[in-house]
Amino acid sequence: MPLDSLTGAMPFYVTTPIFYVNAAPHLGHAYTTIAADVMARHMRQRGEDVFFLTGTDEHGEPVALAAEAQGMTPRELADKNAERFKALMPQLHASNDFFIRTSDPEHEAKVQEVLQRVHDNGHVYKGLYEGWYCPRCADFKSENEQGPGHTCLIHEIELTREQEENWFFRLSTFQKPLEELLQTEFVQPAARRNEAIAFVAQGLQDVSLTRGKITWGVRVPWDPGHVFYVWFDALLNYYTALSYARDGEDITERFWGEPTTHLIGKDILKFHTIYWPALLMAADLPLPRRVFVHGFLLGGDGRKMSKSLGNVLDPFEVIERFGVDALRFYLMRDVSFGEDGSVSMEGVESRYTTELANDLGNLASRTIKMVQRYRDGAVPDVPLDEGLQRDFAALSGDFCRAMDDFRVSDALEVVWERVRRLNAFVEEQAPWQLAKDEARAGDLDRALASLVEGLRTVGVMLVPYLPERMGALLDALNVEDRTLRAFGEGARVERVGDLEPLFPRIDRAAAA
What is the chain's mean pLDDT, rounded? Predict the structure, then answer.
């Protein structure tokens, strides 16, 4: 990836899937958004030129059907629910640079431009389609994608038999190019890449590019009686947003292609790892660097979350009880990113108490109070503990490598190993004992300075996960530079200020 000739910053573009406006925001939306935000914040700390995109998917049959059921027009439903998703972003402390709506006229015009190019390149033809269709997926299902009795494996509802004349996209033309692409690291992690490889190995069939029976969508410029199939409209958002997200500036050339990472859930793998690259090839557009596929969050009982089973973790309830940062931390900590994993309110409480409150919160409180008590808040300007320096030596490299691979859970564990090490250092050094012996004043100075520098180091690294609480910690340490700096390499902390408990004890009776 080339360095920018002026700033030296490298472009980094991260996207979430855009979320359907036919229902309210839920934990899955929060999960993907937080993961993307963690990466965006981390890359900004490294001095990169970051663009973080999220938004809403507003066209297609699922939205039209939901609107009809509520006695609304699709536009009214889209306007109502898009605002709910927009409001979710600050609630999650998401730092997205733009929020796209696929009903934006700029997006619609760009979709028509790109797909007209696909048409003009000869990758489109008209034909009759018949198949089994899931209105909630907005997807025709092959035999291998159906459950017993022609049901949707994802939504567990009966599929409908649909027949209509559509314009088709020649997906089959891209069989060989996709096979070659999937031998690279375009799809991560490897287990998800293997799923995409298996799908392509079955032999690709041409797919509907347009729908003739639906009116809520982007009009087909060469056949205005049709609208584009919602998935092709939606997938293009990642590309179209860059042309108008910044007023008066088209940033497509800077961010599209190699800088781009799409973050998706495994339920939409087929569209993003097969349809999407094929469509870009057909339009002669560069491919994104990678698609990272995460798993499902399951109920505490290991089953798919369901209100009827009572195993749903409500993100808004977690925020109300424990705070936004606790939700962010838990979702990145408790489930290895990329895999399925169970989550529960009991799990949130356990992580909050043992790791946030006890490990990190107590460490911060004790360190600052000891500096205030023994050195009147002034951090000694002395060489740091050599043993602690060795223990922290590999931290920055290990952390950044994990983040570069989108292993956000592994990166968090790398930091937490040092949080635990700092707690052990407190017990080993016992500053309260050193303070009783004037002859050991130098040892006390070294212990306190080393603890403060360790706290600064982990605090800065944890800002992407815990932006609010680590902001408060770094304020108390008077740390202005919050870019990544290894242990002993940051601007020296000279004084500490007061710090309220970072993670106050939660009264279990009140939280129940």
Answer: 92
